[in-house]
Design a protein that fits this description.
- The protein is an alpha+beta fold and 61 residues long.
- It has one domain (7-52).
- The protein is 51% helix and 26% strand.
- It has one helix and two strands, in the order ββα.
- The chain has a two-stranded antiparallel ribbon with strand order 1-2.
- β1 (7-14) and β2 (17-24) form a beta hairpin.
- It is elongated and about 55 Å long.
Amino acid sequence: MTTKKERYVMKHEEGGREWSSIITREAYLEHCLEVISQDLIMLEIDIEDSYKSKKGESSDE
């Protein structure tokens, strides 16, 4: 018995160009994890900066 792999269409945009590619479920989930990880890092930086500004510290220290 063979299983059909799920496929997703991923849209890309770079330098004003747009295109789509078909990717596997695994590749899609990997991409999602990367995006979520980057968002969490940015959120952590924003929280640290906000905390420092409330304490009157510079974020460059």
